[in-house]
C-alpha cells in the first residue's frame, strides 16, 4: 500500500512555478505547470546539483537556474544530448479539494498516470 | 404482464434511455415518470439559443405529450419524489402520489452550486440550469441594466452571450486567469476572451467575489479588491453538483454522485442510475455525450442479462455562442511522452493544438475553425494511428489522402492572383514579377520594391518560398536568427511587432506571432517579459514566473543554491550606520562571506533563501534598498571623490553619480547596465570601460558609452560633450531609454551600438534636443512604476512569501492513512 503525504493545495504553488518540500530524501521540488499538472522531483539537477525548484517552468519541463540544463518533470530525464536523470516522485490531486499528496515510495513513481 | 419501471427525473439521459428501451423491447415495461419540472422532456443543451432568442421553447422539446401517450407512459409533471422505499419497492412524491416498481431508474441530474457568500440568497441571484431560470433571466432582461455572471466556464459564458444579445450590459467574473480553463489551454482562453470583449461583454479574470450587495434585491457585486459593480441580476454559473440526496436517503452507495458499476446498477441491483447524478469509476460527467452512452447501457440491461457495459467516456466540448467557434476534447496537458502540433493563424484568429501520445491523438483544442473537430474526435476515440498523416494532420481531413505537401511546390501551385501579403494587398505575380524584372535577390530588396512582408511579417516564409521558386539556386535565404526554438522570428521582429500590433501580454504575443509551443521556453519568456515591461509601462503586469530566479527573488543564486545580497550604496558612498547594520545582519544570520565588489558595493554571500525576507527587513530598517546586483537592470554607478576631496577633481563626480543612480534605479534594461563618473581625465572610476561613463573636465562633462570589460574588452566611444550636470543627466537618461526600446534581450549596450550604428544613436539623443527630451520623458514616466524597492515589498510578511518557505515538511511525518 502506498503512503500518501498531504503537502498542501494546488493554489499554494504559482502556475509555471515550484515550491519545496523537506523530506527524508532531502528537498523535493513540487512543480505546477501552466495547465495545473503537478510534478515532484528531487530538488537537485543531475548536472551540478542546482536547485531545480528555482528554475523557469515551461511546458512540462524546468530549466535549471545554474547552467540551463532542461529536465523533463515527468520522467526526470535531461533533455537534449545530456545524460542524467533526477529522481521523480508520484503525486496525486483530489479534484474537489485540490489537495496535493506525494508518495515517497520508489514503486509508485512509475504509476502516476494510473493514479490520476 | 409487463414489469413496472419507474423513472425519477425527466431530463435528456432518461429520455434517451426510454427511446432505446421502447425500440429494443416494446411492451416489456409499463413506465411511470416523475418530473419535478412541470413540463415534458426538452433539450437542455438548447437553453442558450432560447436565452439568446435564436430558438423557442417549442423548438427544443424532445418528447411531446403525444409521445408519452403513444408509448403508454404515465408522466407526473411537477411532482418531486421525496422518498424511495426499497423494501416495499415504491417511490412517493411530495404530494403523496405513490408508484410501485420492479425496476427503478434514478436520473435526478445535478444542481447548480451556489457560492455561499453574503447576499447569495437575495432575489435576483439566479442559476442557469432549466427553463425556469431562462424565463427569469428573460423577464429581467426586458428592463435592461447590467447582469453580472459569476463563472467563466461553458454555462456562464453562454448565459453572458445570451443576456448581451437580449440587450443587457454584461460583466463576467472569473476566478481563474483565463476563461474555461478546464477545457481550454491559456492561448485559446485568451482568444475567447478577446472575442467576447469585442462583443461588448466585460470580462474580469482573477476576480474573487466578496459579496452580493443589496437590501431586498440584488443591487451589485463587490470583489475582494473592493471593486463594486452595479447589477440588476447575478447569474451563478460556477459549477454543478450531482443531486444524490434522494439516493443517499434510500441507503444507496453515494460518493460525489450515486455510485454505479459498469452495468449502470447502483448498490441495489434493481435500481439503476444515470446522467449527471452518477459517479462511475470515480468520475462524474456534465456533458451530453457520456450521458447518452450510459442511456444505451441502461436500456440494454433492462432488456435482460447482457454484455452491454459502460466503460467511461472521452468528452468533447463546444461553446454554443453564435459566431465563436471553439472545440475542445480529451486531455491536452503537456507531458514529455506527448508531442504537440500547434497551428496559429493570427490574421484569421485561428489556433489549433493537437496532443499526440503513442501515435494517437489524445487531446485537441480548436479555436476559430472547428470544422475538423468531429474528425479529430473520431481519430481520438478510435485511437487511430496518425504517423502516416503526421505532417498534414493539423490541416484537417480535407488535406489527407494526397502526398505530404512540399512547401515550395505548394507555393508554385498558387494562382498568380493569390494574395500573399494581406497587410499590403500584394499578390503572387507582383512579387515574382518584381524579382525577375528588377533582379532582386534579397528579402530586404523584395520588401523595399513590393512592400510584401514589410508590415506584420507573417508572410515572410511564403515570400521566401516564392523567391526560391523564382531564383532557384541563386536564392540564399537571409540568415535570420530566430529568438529561440519556439518561433522563427528574430528579436528585432518580435520587438517591432509588439509595438506595431499593440501586443500587451505574453499569451497575446505567442498567439499573434504564431508561437510554435504553447508555453514558450526559458529563453523566450524572460525576453518577452522584458519587452512588454519596457514597451507598456504601467499597463503590463510583470510576470514573475517568466523571470530568471535572481530577478524573481531579488538576490543572486550561488552554486550551492544559497543567495548573495548586495544593498545599494548610492555612487559607492556609505556611512557608519549602514556598515554597522550590514555587520549586524552578517552576525545575526551567520552569513559566511562578505566581499567588496567591482562596482563599489558590499556583497554578503551564502544567505539561505528562507532568511532573505528577514535580511532585507533589517537592511531596509537601516535605510538601504536592493542594489539590483542580480538584474538585467541599472546595477551600479561607480564614482571617484571628485571636487569634494581630490586635488585634481574638476567637477562634483560623486554628486553626479549619486544623482544619476537615484534617478535611474529600479529600471529594467535588456542586459545589465553599469556606469561610472570620474572627476578628471585620470579616470580613477574607470569610466571608459563601462556601459555608460562620464569623464569630468574643466569645460564640463564628456559622456562616453559602449565600453566593455567582461568577455570582451572594449574602450568606450565618446557620445558628446555637455556643459552642465542637467544636460549630462538628460543625455544619459535618453541614451539608456533608446537602448531600452531598441536593445535585444541580453544584448549589452556595446553590442546594441554596433548593430544600430553610432550615427542613429547620436541623431536620436544628441543632435535633436526635442527628440532627446521625448526619450527622457518616456524614461521618467516608466520610472513611476519601476521605482519600488522589491526588498521592501517582500521583506518579512510581504509579497510572494510562497517563494521563501517550503510548502511542507514531511521529514518526520507519519504516513498519511
From TrEMBL, chain A:
GO biological process: nitrate assimilation
Pfam families, alphabetized: Rieske
Highest taxon listed in the record's lineage: Bacteria
UniProt xrefs under SUPFAM superfamilies: ISP domain
Iron as UniProt keyword: yes
Assigned keywords, A-Z: 2Fe-2S, Iron, Iron-sulfur, Metal-binding, Nitrate assimilation, Oxidoreductase
Domain Rieske, first and last residues per copy: 4-100
Molecular-function GO terms, alphabetical: 2 iron, 2 sulfur cluster binding; metal ion binding; nitrite reductase [NAD(P)H] activity
Presence of keyword Metal-binding: yes
PANTHER family listed in its UniProt record: 3-PHENYLPROPIONATE_CINNAMIC ACID DIOXYGENASE FERREDOXIN SUBUNIT (PTHR21496:SF23), FERREDOXIN-RELATED (PTHR21496)
This protein's name: Nitrite reductase small subunit NirD
Provenance organism: Jiella avicenniae
Species classification: Bacteria, Pseudomonadati, Pseudomonadota, Alphaproteobacteria, Hyphomicrobiales
The gene coding this protein: nirD
TrEMBL record, chain B:
UniProt domain FAD/NAD(P)-binding: residue ranges: 4-279
GO MF annotation terms: 2 iron, 2 sulfur cluster binding; 4 iron, 4 sulfur cluster binding; flavin adenine dinucleotide binding; heme binding; metal ion binding; NADP binding; nitrite reductase activity
CDD domains in UniProt: NirB_Fer2_BFD-like_1 (cd19943), NirB_Fer2_BFD-like_2 (cd19944)
Pfam families: Fer2_BFD (PF04324), NIR_SIR (PF01077), NIR_SIR_ferr (PF03460), Pyr_redox_2 (PF07992), Rubredoxin_C (PF18267)
Domain BFD-like [2Fe-2S]-binding, chain residue ranges per copy: 420-468, 483-532
Domain Nitrite/Sulfite reductase ferredoxin-like: residue ranges: 558-622
Alphabetical keyword list: 2Fe-2S, 4Fe-4S, FAD, Flavoprotein, Heme, Iron, Iron-sulfur, Metal-binding, Nitrate assimilation, Oxidoreductase
Cofactor note: Binds 1 [4Fe-4S] cluster per subunit.
Pathway: Nitrogen metabolism; nitrate reduction (assimilation)
InterPro entries on file: BFD-like_2Fe2S-bd_dom (IPR007419), BFD-like_2Fe2S-bd_dom_sf (IPR041854), FAD/NAD-bd_sf (IPR036188), FAD/NAD-binding_dom (IPR023753), FAD/NAD-linked_Rdtase_dimer_sf (IPR016156), NasD-like (IPR052034), NiRdtase/SiRdtase_haem-b_fer (IPR005117), Nit/Sulf_reduc_fer-like_dom_sf (IPR036136)
Record-listed [4Fe-4S] cluster binding positions: 640, 646, 680, 684
Binding, siroheme: 684
Start and end residues of each NADH-rubredoxin oxidoreductase C-terminal domain: 316-384
Superkingdom, taxonomy of origin: Bacteria
SUPFAM superfamilies according to UniProt: FAD/NAD(P)-binding domain, Nitrite and sulphite reductase 4Fe-4S domain-like, Nitrite/Sulfite reductase N-terminal domain-like
Cofactor(s) for this UniProt protein: [4Fe-4S] cluster; [2Fe-2S] cluster; FAD; siroheme
GO biological process: nitrate assimilation
Ranges for domain Nitrite/sulphite reductase 4Fe-4S: 631-769
Family, similarity comment: Belongs to the nitrite and sulfite reductase 4Fe-4S domain family.
NCBIfam families named among the record's database cross-references: nitri_red_nirB
Name of the protein in its database record: Nitrite reductase large subunit NirB
